[in-house]
Amino acid sequence: MIFLAKAALALGGTVVMAGAYTFHEGVIRVDVDESRPGGSHVHFWAPAAVVPMAFRLVPKHHMQHVSEQARQFAPLARVFVKELKKFPDFELVDVQDASQHVQIRTHDGKLQIDVVDPGENVHLLVPLSMLDDITSQLEANLLGA
Amino acid sequence: MSSARQSFFGKVALIAAAVMVLSPIGAWAQATADKTSSTAATTSAKADRWLHVRVISTDGKGETVRVNVPLELAEKVLPAVNHDRLHNGKVKIDCEHVNDVDLKALAEAIRSSKDGEYVTVQGSDNDVRVAKQGGYLLVHVLDHGYRGKHGMKDKDEAAEKSASGKNSEKNEVEIKVPMKVIDALFSAGKDELDLVAALHALSAAGDTELVSVKDRDNTVRVWLDSKNVTE
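Predict the joint structure of the above. Result:
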């Protein structure tokens, strides 16, 4: 009985620790809703820590290819994301007309992109720390190459 | 229970009690430290300089564009952009495209001159004024818009319409740039403009409206302040 209790405690502790680690960088949220008949509705929600980990699992030659493709904008993205993290929440861009509204802003350490259009609504929420990790990896690959 | 074991349990109980008593103090100290660092962040955020761009279209579609950029961010990001004529925060200028005018010499001449009006043109179509005043270079262009798309208009009729606010075709451009920014802009080589140095100089300037354009369909404003939101 005591053995079972200890095992349950260890398992529970591991799950809690793993959950805490997985979610320490927050979550990525992607919501796409097309309003046309038969339009797609995508609601994607994933722990942000998974993405840099997944990047590490990508075979090296594929990663090299991606880095090469991103050669022109990777240093720029790296600096941009790194600097974005230093500032308080702010609205970077807001474009609005009679039917469309596009907003790009930072909120609670996340980059938030919202597009509201009569045809579709897109909402994207990405932690800046995750973007920082990815751009760092891309740059490191370029330097390694 | 032996006296040694009793003493051990006593010590453990004492340590546990001390931890329980001190832990709220520790938490309070951490909270205070967090608060202090948060206050510092707010103060530093207040010191940030922000460049704002606002475009409002009044042509019926109600288009609005608002851009807010921290100058520090622009200063750091710009050197990372290497495209076409822009490299390391400096943009190459081609003398052929500025009609062989030595822009650097021109900027130096303006800088060393006293305050005053350098150009004043009052025409039937446009009024232009270029002046240096209080450490700023001012450019004001007023297009009366008499020769609009409807062809030659009677000047009095157009003025009357403009005064009544009906069908005004007046276009107005106002530019106000600190001289220090112009100096910084031309601080690079002869055929280069140093954008990063200009941004750095701009961050030292006070709250300023840099550009204002008003025409029949659009209003454009570019200004600098310490707020991270548009008015």
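Residues 2-144 of chain A form one domain.
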